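Much of what follows relies on a compact textual record of a protein's fold. The record below shows the convention in full:
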Amino acid sequence: MKALRAYAPASIGNVSLGFDVLGAALAPVDGSQLGDVVDITAAESFSLTTVGTFAHKLPAGADNNIVTKCYHFFCQAMEKHGKATTPVALTLHKNLPIGSGLGSSASSIVAAFAALNGYFDCPFDEDTLLHMMGELEGQISGSIHYDNVAPCYQGGMTLMTGAQEPVTLSLPLNPTWYYAICYSGISVSTAAARDILPKQVEMSTALTFGRQLGVFVHALHAGEFDLAASVMKDVIAEPYRKSLLPGFDDARAFSEREGALAFGISGSGPTVFAVCSSEQQAQRIARYLDENYIQNEDGFSRVCQIPQAGTVVSPLNENDTAPAL
């Protein structure tokens, strides 16, 4: 019988200058995985098993898990299209911390939908799946947005179009940029991080946001990467959200002294990231963040780049071991 494994990487939402419309996938340079995994096999009745480093922090009961909700949502969509499903057993390897700003819920959702779509012979195209993923992500965060699910699924850096299709556009990547990312160990609710933001912004702020995003997209396409880095500043969320992140200002100050190209909050936080021009610079900043930004034993740092590939679906073999971060 068919058995598959879907790996969905962590991601940076917003990438500082692109609130709700820009996102990027993450891949550690040491070759390790940083993301959630969903295994799918045939079964007589549906079941969900949760394992992994952060499984104990998930809501109790399979019915309360977002992966179970993905399964039922997928089955309903199949029924609407006149397609049959059969019961499956799912295993969620919950490797990303919850409320971390690393696209944790998006990673579980994307891995679940990718596994289900692959198992049932790919009935849905990419845009349709993205709409499903966005709908389920919205049930957790309180609003539909694609800045985590899109790069997690598609890889690279993605710009959200606001259209039904294509949902995203892929932006050029700079292969010489490295990202020192650090999860502090505390949890920040996406919904709470949105509630702290003002409901309206000043005209000058809106103009700055639009100008920065336009310059950034142009600069990436033109290969003017110094110009792109120069506008990676968050004028929408960071001024308010940084109050939720102990040590943020000190971490930014150190990164700037080390010559980082940019520094910001990943999604809603508390994870932060520094854009660096070399792996050595990223490693130095990651070591500082390890020693000064992390708040408890759950925290960790990684040096990453943005991968071209996103979610990977592969055959699941009997001797496959549980993925580890």
The longest strand covers residues 35-42. The chain has two domains: 3-171+308-315, 178-305. Residues 3-171+308-315 form a domain with the Ribosomal Protein S5; domain 2 fold (CATH 3.30.230.10). Residues 111 and 142 are 20 Å apart (CA to CA).
